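ligand=L-homoserine
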Amino acid sequence: MSEVARRITASAPGGIGNIGPALDVLGCAVAGARDEITVAWRDEPGVEVADAGHPDLPRDAARHTAALAAAAVLRRAGAKHGLTLWCRKGLPLSGGQGGSAASAVAGAVATNALLGNPLGTDALLASCLDAESAVAGRHLDNIAASLLGGIVLVRTLEPIEVIRLAVPTGLILVLAHPAQRLMTLDSRRALPEQVRRADVIQQIGNASAMVAACYTGDVALFGRAIDDRIAEPARAPLLPGFLAAKRAARDAGAYGVSISGAGPSAFAVVADDKIAHAVATAMRDAYVAAGLECATRVTRVDREGAIVHEK
Ligand code: HSE
């Protein structure tokens, strides 16, 4: 092989898809947990998964989102090489925190770096979209947030047009992860085919207000606008404890609460550290009262996105 033999590791953050009302449109990267993918050349063509990252994840490269994204990058770059891939999961499986998107992004970025970075942002997004479409459905909100960091707006998939938004400086996020797994594809099946005009109008108002709040830094407006009339009512029945946790978080002072991505995680928006910890406790207690253990974290928007760690 002509390239200098080497391996590269990249990591990517999880995120909150939809950020409430903007289904498949808004997403934000969340600081803290990351998935990490290492890739190295191998002599045979194709992608081999040496470590799937979790006993419940497939070692079949046709079903592992990082391997699918790596293969898509090789294809788009016209590379004939084969790769071995190792995955370390920092994000929960089927947790609604953008874990499969983070693996896809880290896999794509590591592979692109190994090739000398032939692909630009849109081609990386398209490669990850190929991977996620096979595993979790065709949407870019989590992928774009994980790759770019910050808060993103996905205007269109064809052509891919992603806009990075300003991040309100005072924005604090509380993530609650109840002990439940929900496959994104199953949660997407619950979405309604048709919605009432009044709900669409309210939804557009809310999503638009969130974009405005990003630029004015108005965390209270950002949180108030997290009022999802379309996905949340359809998905809440799949999520034991969610409505109680939402009520508890509101009572504890959260500006807004909704499902994180396709669930089961929920998130709350606050602007004060002390309130954030009270909200986290209230959400955890509500899930526990509903019979589910729950992990919470108080965090912020990740601004870095995907990172290459080793050359
Ligand atoms: N936008 C996606 C959904 C996020 O709500 O289904 C989950 O990956």
